[in-house]
Every structure is written in structure tokens, then in C-alpha cells.
Amino acid sequence: MSYKLKTLQKELAALVDRYTVRDGDLYTEISNLLFSRHSIPYRSNRIEPPYKIDKPSIYIIVQGVKDVILGEERFRYGPPNYLVASMDLPIIAEVLEASAEFPNLSCKIEFTRSNILELLSHDALTVSHRGKSSRSLNVAELDVSVLDAVVRLVGLLDKPADIPVLAPLFTKEILYRVLHGEHGSSLRQIVTDGTPAIHIQNAIQHLLNHFQESFQVEDLADIAKMSVPSFHRHFKQITAMSPIQFQKQLRLQEARQLLIMEESLSIADTAFQVGYESPTQFIREYSRMFGISPKKDMRRLKKADEHGLDI
To answer: Which residues belong to any copy of the HTH araC/xylS-type domain (predicted)?
Structure first.
């Protein structure tokens, strides 16, 4: 790792540490910039809430290491890397290295599809073919050009009067660097007419809006304007899951949110509310996904809340 990169990482770590006064996910004065701070490894206590990517984004770990689980794939990243996410996805994030003395710190920078389209109007990006990944989640190597722009964006929190003018410019620069990076194609494909990602997005949006309902794969393939075999292949390439697995992730993550937010709901009511017809099946699949039964998870979440732990 170069001296310049290390220097920028230390500067970014100091900024994020100063602006995160408690554990959890924290919004900032810059609307598309979010911070995350955790002093306890998730893997040891499993009390993390479900997580969902809902906008094209990059994630940079400032301190520590995280795993992000998408379907059956695990993506590990730390300070040498950043995570590129291109579309709506249900994921599980695990903090692997964290302590009170050395908290896990990260920042998330969100983009809009219009941001991407605006930059793609430039010839230099239109003809760029670097990166061929069809996956909607990828780990890229962090370089000085990306990190320098991120440090300048985060540094605007010290100069709030400059945010309205400079934050959009720095965000545009970051996106420009990412689009030129090794996984820039994963962002380009979500706004490029005729790509499989464009059509799969329509099916994903349908699942997001109707995850409680049963579906026929043929109907999703029609929404994506694909044959069933082609739809299956592209859906799994992009999301690392089959449509059924994708729906199951959405249901179980919504169920966990309900267990956190709605203490009066029974396990059976929770199961029915997210679309399960059998509470037994719900309990079995919940336990498999989160490593703990719904009832025990409720107790653990309540105990964590009573002790002031962020969930």
C-alpha cells in the first residue's frame, strides 16, 4: 500500500471517527453520505439488523474488516478495497474486526441512476470496457484517485456552507472514478438499454413490491421480457440467487425487522405477515438464515436494547 493511500486512509478514519458518536448507521449533513460505526463484532453476537442495498452505492471500510453475504456468496473487504453495489438487494453484513478501542468504521456513498446516465454521455466512459462483471455486488481495489475524492467529500462536513455547491461535484468525481474502475461495468449496465440487468431490475422491483405473494417464474420472466431459461440464468448471474431464494431473503429480513419493531406480534403472526403459510417452515428457514430461532432472536434483541447496544 502506497504512502499516499495510507495517509488518506488515516485522514478519512479521523473524520469518520469524529462524526460518529455512537454505534450504528448514521446519516450526515451530506444527503448521499452515510457512516457506520461498530464496536462489537457481529459474528460474535449476531444481533445485527437485516440490511438492504436500495441505491447504487460504494462502501469503503475505514477501519476493520466486513463480510457482506449475498445469497450463498460472501464478499470480504477492508481498507484496501471498496464495495460496488449496483441495484436493490437483500444482504447480510457481518463486522469481523471491531472493538471499543478500534471500532469498525465505514462510509457509504450513494448515487442516482441519473448521476450515472449524465456521466455516460461522455465519450470517454461510453467507450470504456474495463470490467465485465455482471454481478450486482463486487469488491474493487481502492486507489488514490477514488480515496482522495472521498476524503474531500467527507471533509465538507467541516465546512457545511460549502456542501450545497461542492458535494455534488465531489460525488460526480467519485462516480467518474468508479465507472472507470475494474467494476464500473456493473453500474453502467443498470442504465444501458438492452442489457440483461435493465430487464432483471424490473423483475427485482416486482419482487420487492410483492414479496409476500407467491409467484410463477413464467410471470417474472414475462416482466423481464425473457424466456424462462434466460431469465433464470441472468437473474442468478446478477443477484447470486434464484428468484425463490431472493424472495426468501426479503421475507426473512422483513420478518426480523418486524420482530425488532413490533414486540406484540407473535411468531406465527410474523410468519403470516411476510407471506409464509406455515410457521414451522418460517422458523426453520429463519433459524437457518440467522443462526438462531425467531423466539431466541427476539429475546436477544430485547436484551441488547435493554443494555443499550445498537441493533
So the answer is: 201-300
Cα separation, 289 vs 298, in Å, equals: 15
CA angle, corner 90, sides to 41 and 245, nearest 5? Answer: 115
CA-nearest of 95, 64, 92, 93 to 78 is 64
What tens digit of pLDDT does each residue of 243-299 get?
999 999 999 989 988 887 777 889 999 999 999 999 999 999 999 888 889 988 877
For the entire predicted model, the pTM comes to: 0.83
Is 104 strand, coil or helix?
A: strand
Q: What is the pLDDT of residues 117-162, one digit of tens each?
A: 989 877 555 545 454 567 889 999 999 999 999 999 999 999 999 9
| Domain chopping of the chain, boundaries | 3-188, 193-311
C-alpha distances out from residue 306 to 245, 262, 294, 296, Å: 34, 16, 18, 15
By CB atoms closer than 10 A (0-12, 13-18, 19+), residue 208 is middle
Q: What is the dihedral of CA 127, 132, 136, 139, to 10 degrees?
A: -110
Helices first, then strands: H and E counts in the chain: 14, 10
Residues 192-244: pLDDT tens digits? 877 888 899 999 999 999 999 999 999 999 999 999 999 999 999 999 899 99
Q: C-alpha dihedral over 131, 135, 136, 141, to 10 degrees?
A: -50
Dig out the grid coordinates for 288 from the structure: 437457518
Kindly state the helix (H) or strand (E) to which residue 91 belongs, with its residue range: strand 89-95
The architecture that CATH gives domain 193-311 is Orthogonal Bundle (1.10)
226 φ/ψ angles, rounded to the nearest 5 degrees = -135, 160
187, 116 contact by CB (below 8 A)? yes
Instruction: Look at the domain 3-188 and name its fold.
Output: Jelly Rolls (2.60.120)
